[in-house]
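Build the 3D complex.
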Amino acid sequence: MERFPEQFCDQLRDLMSWRRDVRHFHADRPVDDAVLETVLEAIRLAPSVGLSEPWRIISVKSDAARKKALVNFEAANADALSGYSGERAQKYAGLKLSGMRDAPVQLAIFCDESTEKGAGLGAGTMPEARRYSVVSAVMNFWLAARAHGLGVGWVSIIDPKQLALDLRADEGWALVAYLCVGWPMEISQTPELEKAEWEKRDPLLAEVQER
Amino acid sequence: MERFPEQFCDQLRDLMSWRRDVRHFHADRPVDDAVLETVLEAIRLAPSVGLSEPWRIISVKSDAARKKALVNFEAANADALSGYSGERAQKYAGLKLSGMRDAPVQLAIFCDESTEKGAGLGAGTMPEARRYSVVSAVMNFWLAARAHGLGVGWVSIIDPKQLALDLRADEGWALVAYLCVGWPMEISQTPELEKAEWEKRDPLLAEVQER
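Done.
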């Protein structure tokens, strides 16, 4: 396919603008395995440095594992709150920053830093490129999920090393993202942080400098 | 839009499978400014931690700037080659790993680690989340570019600090990606590294572990 139809390009733009970080899920509406598998396939289609395909996934299902992840988030969140004062602190305390209590599917996405796949190509000068490959996979997943009507929330207020320990991740796996997945309570083109008046998006892309 | 039409979901999957890392460009076919601007808009639609929107872009246009970037790549590439021996070294030497000599548009994508936008939300426990936001923006750009028929190649064999210096990037900007953009010589669903028998993709996503 040389280029995709104009209509598809417009829809892709719509998809990107309707993709939001979701923190409010229908706790009682499970995600069908077949839908989840279809969406997970998008991970395989992501670029990876040297074809290393370093993405590794742990589905956090048991009450015990979820509890540990939640305790981790709550500690990191309390710590973050303590770094703000005055109005900012009040605003921060009022934000809902994870859907971990409700999301029916929760995925911990790791980067296998120790993989020999790809024989290190492209990761010598910028070893972080492996983690960036995993982020690319998360974006593919996020867009595919949204296309199917699923909401995704990325929790980064979490101690990655503690979570890796708690989930008994393999040696050499580094946490890149903790994803909450489920059917969203509402859909929107406006980020929650903008609605909550925490921050605004810039209406324009910052100027592209030239050299 | 609750969910997108089935046909769109299928096309999105196609788009992801036709998105490749491109290193062979038509050097004599310029990219229209209007197309580039449309595709750059996809960056604005990416998620960013705390709504920090930390992406910064330098378009590498002048002969002098391109020369410096190319010299940087060639040194890093020679260095990488010296880490292989025997058949691997021979194969590595035969790979074309960047389209920097041909690509009509070249963009250095940075993360502004010093931005106060977003007031640090979500970047306390995992400061790397800011760079991950920039990678998300690169993925949006890549997919939008491919939809419009443009090829993108991500060069990670480059000394990021040297490039930031050479391009006189602002204090606090860290290089995330060097992108070559242009009209591809060929389109494919198979990665160049697979064609060159450097590495194969796994036919299936690795097993999702459960905890």
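The CA atoms of residues 22 and 153 of chain B lie 5 Å apart.
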